Amino acid sequence: NQVPAIKLNDGTLMPQLGYGVWQVPDAEAERAVGTALEAGYRSIDTAAIYGNEAGTGKAVAASGLAREELFVTTKLWNGPKQKWGRDQVLRAFDDSLAKLRLDHVDLYLIHWPRPMRDDFVAIWKTFEEIAASGRARSVGVSNFRPADLERIAAESELVPAVNQVELHPLFPQAELRAVHAERGIATEAWSPLGQGKELLTLPAVTAIADKHGRSAAQVVLRWHLQHGNIVIPKSVTPARIRENLDVFGFELEAGDIAALDALGAGAAGRRIGPDPAAFD
Ligand code: NAD
């Protein structure tokens, strides 16, 4: 397994490339995650809202891999339309652990900041307790904006280990990445392949792929890795699951990176997913 590890700000090592399971039905998750673990992935990204923690947990149990070889991430879903209370957060976390059949996760994330609910600082204080208990080795956030990270810093003790955000060449998040670097927060890219849509068909991407004799997906994953991003590409197709891990035998040149950087620079950058300012 050639996947490099990223050292998080709490000292934990996280594989730089993992396997994401959004939109994988629970009944299919055991096979899909099993295929990924067999292929050599050691990091799995799920969430309570994906509804596939149980299938993921079955695959992990069936893999025969030692627990310390695996890095399992799950996420606290957006609460009811009122604020989350401490006990509700702890119950949601217990429920995720039970479905995953684990006594701890490696990373637990607040899925969305929901700034209109004004409760993420309180949730984060419960995450600090969860981290102190050892039931999550690391805790972090997802979809947090610079202002949200500023509030966490001003009103709590622990710095999130990770912020998992939409990030790909069409939405490169330059400003947010600079904030992460300043605060010591690792950048994790969701929809790293732009959900396998337009991005992988752009001539700028396919030309680089042809030059290296690699696929467009592999070129985009290299762009992330060479920028230092943690990535969690998703596929349920065994050949693509393996292809997305087979990205350590070549390197993009500086000119390739610059060409990919140009795709979403400045005003050209656009999201595929929801805007965290409004998503509830
Ligand atoms: P992705 O960018 O990983 O794209 C996945 C899609 O790309 C696949 O469904 C397939 O259609 C295509 N694809 C995959 N490999 C390919 C290949 N080798 N060649 C051609 N096409 C290929 O999109 P994603 O699933 O949205 O994101 C990855 C993971 O990020 C998710 O599974 C989930 O774990 C996480 N995520 C988190 C959030 C969040 O709010 N925190 C939001 C979205 C996704």
Fold and architecture overview:
With 280 residues, the protein is an alpha/beta fold. The chain has a single domain, classed as TIM Barrel (Alpha-Beta Barrel). The protein is built from 10 helices and 10 strands. The protein has an 8-stranded parallel beta sheet with strand order 3-4-5-6-7-8-9-10. Helix 1 packs parallel to helix 2 (53-63) and helix 7 packs across helix 8 (216-227). The longest helix is centred in the first third of the chain and has 15 residues, at 86-100. It starts with a strand and ends in a 17-residue tail after the last helix. The model has no long low-confidence stretch (mean pLDDT 97). The protein binds nicotinamide-adenine-dinucleotide. Nicotinamide-adenine-dinucleotide binds next to helix 9.
Write a concise keyword list for the protein shown above.
280 residues; 8-stranded parallel β-sheet; globular; binds nicotinamide-adenine-dinucleotide
